[in-house]
Specification:
By secondary structure, the protein is an all-alpha fold. The chain has 2 helices and no strands. Keywords: Coiled coil.
Amino acid sequence: MTTRNQNAGIAAALLGLAGGLFAWWRYNNATPEEKERLKNKVNELGTKLKDTYTEVEDTVSDNVATLKNKLAKEQAKVEEEIEQIAS
């Protein structure tokens, strides 16, 4: 017996399959100009995605470097306090 969640998953899978088949049919019946426009659009979106990924990667790297520097400073302070207490 299937549950409501399973039925929803099956329905989503069928809708996805139907959408994919429609897109495939639509592409196969498109004119060469329409196909070229679609390819250009996909390439443009891919380029934007790659640029966004690179920006995010750079931001994360910068933030990690900043946190490492802060951690090193705090660690040095703690070590200095430990030495003062020990002496």
